[in-house]
Amino acid sequence: MTRNQIDEKVILIIPKIPKVHWILFLLTVFTTLLAGAIMEGAQILDNPLDLIKGVPFSFTLMFILGTHEFGHYYYAQKHKVDASLPFFIPAPPFLFLIGTFGAFIKIKSPIYRKDALLQIGAAGPIAGFIIAVPALILGLFLSDIVEKSDIQGALILGDSILMKILTWVTHPDLMESQDIMLHPIAFAGWIGLLVTMLNLLPIGQLDGGHVAYAMLGEKQKLIGQAAFILLVPLSFLSINWLVWGLLLLLLMRTVKHPPIHDIHIPLSESDKRIGYICLLIFILCFIPAPFKI
Q1: Residue 184 within any structural domain of the chain
Q2: Residue 2 falls inside a structural domain
Q3: Torsional sign, CA 40, 45, 49, 55
Q4: Stretch (H or E) spanning 137
Q5: Domain range for residue 166?
Q6: pTM
Q7: How far is residue 35 from each of residues 179, 183, 197, 205, measured CA to CA in Å?
Q8: 166-188 burial string, b = 16+ CB within 10 Å, else e?
Q9: Domain count, the chain
Q10: What is the pLDDT of residues 12-34, one digit of tens each?
Q11: pLDDT for 74-88, tens place per residue?
Q12: I need a labelling partner for 5 at 20 to 30 A (CA). Which of 16, 211, 253, 282 fits?
């Protein structure tokens, strides 16, 4: 071996392992594509290229969920709160119709200020709402009118106040005997509004819990308890409420929001308006019975 050979350095190039965020994102894109294609009657096993039929649903839903989580992430960065990139949660369409259980970001450092808590909590639902409403309007224009007698046994989606308004605006001549067969884009928009409403429940560390605690302080505990108790009578309208209530109990174990340092410092008027906007969005998106058969 020569001196030159001894002095040579060996450089190993190790490929970078994709972060778990991107793996979950790509998996969720696939499962939502699959869900959207199945909704369109695609036979994926016979023709895998039929997966492309799921693009309108998948793109719309992922855009709504991604915008929601980016709203949280942006305001976390603005307030110098350490937060992860979004974690998307894929789900097999045969277990969960829409192909995903949603998404979340992980807050890695404490939130010390009440205004930061409110803005970080409110940013997600407001951002998602801003995308979901135009998507729903566009989807409603693309949807088909069907006779109710022709869809016996089909999954019936519940109406929020906003859904009723938008249905009237886009289909003013809809007859009592008729219903709307939602286009995949409209269904994704409807799911987006449902996710917004669920996140705005004033319970624990849900987005609505953050907003309620910033607005009401220790009174949030009573509001959270009342909201959680109301899930019981709502479960008689739709069993979904019981399932969601059990999930909340399992994942959060409490309806009370953890304390922050400056809870007794008043919010600015602009921050209060953000809280009122969240309340208005919750009322507009609230669906007493989301799914009916």
Answers
A1: yes
A2: no
A3: positive
A4: helix 114-142
A5: 16-292
A6: 0.89
A7: 23, 13, 22, 29
A8: bbeebeeeeeeeebbebbbbbbb
A9: 1
A10: 454 555 688 899 999 999 999 99
A11: 999 999 999 999 999
A12: 16
